[in-house]
Design brief:
It is built from eleven helices and twelve strands. The chain has helices spanning 29-40, 70-79, 89-97, 102-105, 151-162, 177-185, 201-209, 219-228, 265-275, 280-287, 309-317, and strands spanning 16-21, 41-42, 57-58, 60-65, 84-88, 111-127, 142-144, 171-173, 191-196, 212-214, 233-237, 248-260.
Length: 322
């Protein structure tokens, strides 16, 4: 059943529940969603911002809800099962415009943006002693290409295609990051695709306990991907991001926070204001490495779907849009 979407921004409040679709608990969206939920919430009975309490929306109880990831979150917003969710920029674009994987599924006309958050890197993990040295070497290998409903799965297929491979050319599996890491340790998986900010905890643990390398996505193949999918940009996972792993050129895409157009404008205005309130900065900076990258100055970078009117009102107030 859909939860209440209206909120009073002052006086005595009835609790308003607001869900943020994230990822599996082993993914980065889950802790990031938890940080966002904490800074936008101010449950009934809490101290006001002026009295030293939360500077979230009065009466709001935000919840980070575990899901399978980007596609799952957009689908749930379309169906009214979630108010908002985290997603990759390319998946958001496809959803709103009815392109890519949404050409057959149908466009999500009620999808709106709150903010761009931080860049996510495509990471293809293999054992340090593996004889797999490039994406083309994955042919015939046991590879986790991401959960069904995840953005990782969509992007893995794009990358495989650029190197002349499809799912049928590999022994493909759809594992969450945690189980995939366990299976690589056990010798049952030879590679793992993950689209996430770095360092991802599960990959760090693999690097510390097993020893890993990252496969590069560069050259002509990366150029073809960028031409066909402008949401992608070239990036480098730097040396030291994971113990013992060299700097690796790959692709990245923005992580964005999207919301249903049906959510009340005043509520989304209050949520957007709370996200960028100065009191949120220590929570984001200290809560997760990716939290430090969530900045007002990049809040509109790569946003290729309409802003929710409540978010747009806030960005007009602070001079980010006319």
């Amino acid at each position: 059943m859909a939860l209440c979407l209206s909120a009073s921004l002052g006086g005595t409040q009835e609790p308003t529940f607001f869900r943020i679709g994230t990822s599996s608990t082993g993914g980065i969206y889950f802790p990031i969603g938890g940080l966002i939920a904490s800074v936008i919430s101010n449950p009934p009975g809490s101290l006001s911002c002026e009295s030293g309490g939360s500077c979230g929306v009065p009466g709001l109880i935000a919840i980070a809800q575990s899901t399978r990831g980007s596609v799952d979150n957009i689908d749930a917003i379309a169906e009214g099962a979630l108010e908002s969710g985290l997603t990759q920029a390319d998946i958001a674009y496809w959803g709103y415009h009815g392109e890519g994987i949404y050409r057959a599924k149908g466009k999500v006309a009620n999808l709106r943006a709150i903010a761009n958050l931080y860049p996510e890197s495509l990471q293809i993990v293999v054992r340090a002693d593996s004889d797999i040295h490039n994406v083309a070497d994955l042919r015939g290998r046991a590879v986790s290409i991401g959960e069904e409903g995840s953005g990782t799965l969509v992007d893995a297929q794009i990358v495989l295609g650029a190197y002349g491979l499809s799912r049928t050319d590999i022994e493909h599996y759809h594992f969450k990051p945690g189980p995939a890491s366990d299976l690589m340790r056990a010798g049952r998986l030879e590679a793992i695709f993950l689209v996430a900010g770095y360092p991802a905890d599960t990959i760090t643990e693999l690097a510390e306990t097993l020893g890993i390398r990252l496969l590069a996505v560069d050259g002509a193949e990366a150029a073809r991907i960028r031409l066909a999918h402008p949401s992608f940009t070239t990036t480098v996972v730097p040396e030291g991001a994971y113990p013992g792993v060299a700097a690796t050129t790959t692709l990245s895409v923005g992580a964005q926070w999207v919301v249903s157009a049906d959510v009340d404008e005043d509520l989304v205005y209050g949520i957007t204001r709370a996200l960028w309130h100065e009191s949120a900065r220590p929570v984001l900076d200290n809560g997760h490495p990716e939290g430090r990258l969530i900045r007002l100055e990049t809040a509109l970078d790569g946003v290729a779907i309409p802003l929710h009117p409540g978010a747009a009102r806030y960005y007009r107030e602070v001079g980010l849009i006319d």
